[in-house]
Amino acid sequence: MLELTHLSHVYGNGTRALDQVTLSIPRGMYGLLGPNGAGKSTLMRTIATLQVPTEGSIRFGEIDVIAEPQRLRRRLGYLPQDFGVYPRVSAYDMLHHMAALKGIGVAAERRQTVEALLHQVNLWGVRKKALAGLSGGMRQRFGIAQALIGNPWLIVVDEPTAGLDPEERNRFLDLLAEIGENVVVILSTHIVGDVADLCPRMAVLAGGRIQLEGAPLELIRGTRGRLWTKTIERAELEGYKARHPVVSTRLSAGRTMVHVLSDTDPGDGFTPHEGDLEDVYFCTLAHARRAA
Ligand SMILES: Nc1ncnc2c1ncn2[C@@H]1O[C@H](COP(=O)(O)OP(=O)(O)OP(=O)(O)O)[C@@H](O)[C@H]1O
What we know:
Order of helices and strands: EEEHEEHEHHHEHEHEEHEHEEEH
CATH architecture of the largest domain: 3-Layer(aba) Sandwich
Distance between the termini: 31 Å
Largest sheet: 6 strands, mixed
CATH topology of the largest domain: Rossmann fold
Number of helices: 10
Number of domains: 3
Bound molecules: adenosine-5'-triphosphate
């Protein structure tokens, strides 16, 4: 279990990127969902011991993460948002090098680890290729392989599917799902589908604050009977926004589909709408914006 308590972070320029974040993150896949600038990367870097928060505490089991970062690092796998690699080095050699850095000193053990990981992430066939020659999806799978060196108990993955095509994204998510239920995996993302597909628990972060926490299915159930939809012309949107609490709009075959959150029938031709996690997310963001 990873416990974050009253975690805040203020950058030198005064930006409050995290504001009293308190979360208990159990074993399994945990989704941290938020828009650009929400503070996700700040939180991921803080958990990964790359920066020290201004305030608050982090515990992972018996480890006081801020006081004993080295102890956590031995148990940590981290795939940062901007995962830089030496472009001309092969996947095989780079993984070897990283395994050595992670403390696997015995050559035979290192070789065994590297080969098993290359098979696990399905990169065995391209292991001799320079990293620069791999596709975006392959590079992200390489990123997961390096994060898995040394059998970590805590795995932090920051926006891993951004920029992947749908097939590569599916393959990457399948790989994450396989990592197992016995470790804590935190998946930070702005893509609702990543969380919907993988995570039995999640939180929404916006403006540095936790806006919502829970199990996606329960959170979706919480919108039941309160969501309404109508398809309108784009030009009518401003009028609808003025009359109704619009939480989201999406285009459907060139027309605009409006979703409204209301405990009672808003009239005006709206029909009941079966919500999904995207609706939960947009309702949460709309609420956070109003509160701000
Ligand atoms: N080194 C820094 N110095 C000053 N402000 C920063 C720094 N890093 C991030 N910020 C600011 O902190 C806030 C949170 O940024 P962060 O990168 O953690 O968000 P994010 O949710 O990961 O966003 P994105 O999806 O765009 O990466 C933003 O307002 C950002 O501009």
